Amino acid sequence: MGNSTSHWSTIRATRGNRVFYVAARDVNDLNNTDWHAIGTQAVK
User: Which residues touch 4 (CB under 8 Å, ≥6 apart)?
Assistant: First the structure.
């Protein structure tokens, strides 16, 4: 197994739903998983 690093950023929303996405790639940029939705959150 190799090392992994994750980067997260958020945008504040006053109302509505949020969808959280994740993607991964290797250090040489040869393999990329593309973006995948991993969860949602309702903002009230």
Answer: 24
